[in-house]
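Internal tracking record. Fields below are filled automatically when a chain is submitted to the structure queue. Please do not edit lines marked as system-generated. If the sequence contains nonstandard residues, flag them in the REMARKS field before resubmitting.
Queue: standard
Priority: normal
Entity type: single polypeptide chain
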Amino acid sequence: MTGTAAFPPEDYAGTDRAVFSIQGLYCPSCAAAVERSLRGAPGVEAAQVSYASASAAVRWQPGTDLGTLAARVGRLGFEMRPLMQNAESDRRIGKEMRRFAIRLAVATVFGIWTMMIAVAVYLGPPEMGDPALARALAYASGATALPVIGYAGLPLYLSGWRTLRAGAPGMDTLVSLGVLGATAGSLLSLALGRGEVWFDTAVMLVTLLLVARLVEMATLRRSARALASVEAALPDRALVLREGKRREVLAGEVAAGEQVLVAPGMAVTLDGVIAEGESAFDTSSLTGESLPRTKRAGDRIEAGWINLDAPVTLAVEAPVGARRIDRLGADVEVMLHDRPEIHALADRIAGMIVPVALSLVALTALVWGLAGLPAEDVALRALSVLVIACPCAISLAAPVSHLAAVSRASGDGLLLRRQSATETLGALRTLVVDKTGTLTEGRPRVTDVALAPGETRAGVLALAAAAEGALPHPLATAIRDAAPDTLPEAQAQYREADGVSATVGGEQVRVGSAGHLRRAGIAPLETGMSGTVVHVARDGRAIAALRIADRLRPDAAATMATLRETGIRIVMATGDDRGAALDVARALGLPERDVHAGLAPEDKVALLRDLPRPLGFLGDGLNDTGALVAADVGIAVSEANSASVAVADVVLTRGGLTGVLRACTLSRRARAVLRQNLGFALVYNLAALVLAFEGAVPPAAAALAMTASSLTVLANASRLARNGSRPKPAPTARTTA
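SYSTEM-GENERATED OUTPUT FOLLOWS
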C-alpha cells in the first residue's frame, strides 16, 4: 500500500502541525522507521509516530512541502492520509486482520506437516537416518513449508526490509534474516546431497510472528474503538428555534448565535448560555457529581448535561467541534497517541541484535574461511549463527507472560488489555481515585430524616414521594426508593428548578430546598444537617428534612487501607464539592492533602502530571476518560460508562474494588515471570551464539535449542494461568458519604 494520491497537501495550507493516519502500520518497528524518515525530512521540526493509533503527529516550518512527507512515507511501503474517523479506521484494521488471519491459517495448516516431519527426523528410530529416506523427507519438508515461507510470511519480509532500509530494524527484520538463513541453509544442504534441512525453523518463525502481529492489530483496533466510544457518547441532535418554529436537526448543523430548546429529560447538545428558563441539570458526564445543579438565565451549560426539571432556551456559543466535550475527546486521542507501545521491548532488543548478529555472521565466515575450512562448512557455521540470532524466546517472553496473566485474570473478574499496563500495575507508587460512582455507589440515598413533632418517617416519605411523582431527578429517585410501596395519589403537580408542589390527598405538599419553602413563606426545620438536604412541608408548615447522600461501596475502606499498606499513595480526585469529598476521605482515612475536589476533567489530567509515577487512575465516568488514558494504568469499575470501559487498561468485571488488589497481585507475579523469561532467553542466545561461532552447534542442533528455549518460556509463563492471584479477602463496611 503505497502512493500519495489520497493525500491532499492543500488542505493543510496555513497550518504548521497536524495528525495524519499511516496506513499499513502494524508493528512498533514500522512506526520507528516512519518516525525516523519523517524527522529527517526538510522543514520538519518534530514528528512522533504512534503504532497504537496508526498515526503520526507532525509539526513543520512554513513553506514545507507536505507532499514530500507523504512520498517519504510511501517509499517505505506505507501511506500517509488525512486523519480518518475512528469507525473507518476500525473497518480498515478489521479488513487487514482478516488478511493476516488467512495467512496464519495457511502457516498453521502447512506448518503442522513440516513440524511433524521434523519431529520424525529428530526423534525417530535409527532407520530414519537412512540417507535416501532423509533426503526424501527433506524434500517433503520443503514442499510443505513452501506456502508458509513464500506466501504467509511475505508481509513480514516486506516490513523487515522497509525498517532495515530506514535504519530502524526490529523483530520483522531479525525474523526475516532467520527465515532467509534457515531456507538458504536448507537449499544449500539439498544442493550438496545432504538430508539436513531447517524448514521447520523458518515455519516456526513465520507462524509465531504472524500470531504476534494479529495481537498487535487487535490492540490497534481497540484504540480505534475506544475513540469511537468517546465520540458515540456525544449528543448529536438538537431542537433549534428558526423563524418561530422548532426544528429537530443534527447538532452539527447549528451555528453559534442560534437558539435551541432543551426539554426536560433531554441531553444538552451544544455549549452556551441559558437565554430563558431555569432548571436542574445532571452534570455527571463532565463533573462526576451524582447530585444535580440548578442553572438559571445567564448561566452557562454544556453539551453532555441532562435537563431534569423544566424547559430552557439555550443561546449557542460553541457549535459542534468547539464544545468542551469535543475538546475532551480530542485530548483523549492525543494521549492515546502518546502512550507506550505494547511490544516495543522485543523490538528494541531485536534492533540491537540485528547488527550484532550480522557482524557475527560475517566474522564467522571470515575467521573460518581464513582457517581453511571448506566453503560448505563455513556457510553452515555462519547459518547456525544466523538461526540462533533469531530470539524466538525473547520475542515470546513479554507476550506469553501477558497472555497467561490475561487468562488468569479472566477467572478473577478482571479484564486486562494493554501489556505495558499489566506489567506496571505491580509497581504503582500512586493510585488516583474518582469519588462518585467509584468509591461510592453513585446513587443518592436518604440517609437521615428529621421530623416535626407528631410526624412519622414512613408518612413523610410517602407524602414526599407522591409529590415528586415520576420525576427523573436523582433526589426524587432517592426519596421514592426510601418511601413505602403504597403511596397516596397526587392530584396536581407544579415543578420549579429547586422544588415541587403538589396536592396529595387534599393536602398541599411542598418538597424542595430551604429556599423553595421560604419563597412560599414557610420556615424550614432547623436540623444542623450538612450536605444535600430536602425539606418537606404540608399545608404551609414544615414537617421534615431529609438528608440525601451517596454511600461508600461496601469494600472501599478496606481496599484502600490494604493498598496503602503495600506502599501505594491514595489520592482522591473528584468534581464534587470539597465538603462531600472530605466526608468520604475521613471515612477512608485519607489525609486532607490528598483530597482534590471541584476538579474539571482537564484538572484531573493536570493533577496526574505532578504526582509520583508510576501511577494508576481508578474511575467510572465519561469525565474520567482523559485521566484513564493519561495514567500509566487506567482502571474502570464494572458499572463504568461505556467510554471509560473502552479506554481503560483494566476493567473490574466483578468482585467490587477488591479487584484492584487482585490485579496488583497478579501484576507482581507477571513481572517476576517476565524477568525470568527475559533473563533465560538472553543467556541462551548469548551462550548459543558463542558456541555456534566456534562451530560447536550445527544448524540442526541450533533449531532444536531454539525450540527448547521457546518451550521453556511458554512453560514458565503457564504458571501464571495455573496459580491464583486472589489476595486475602478484606472485611467490608458500609459508610455514608
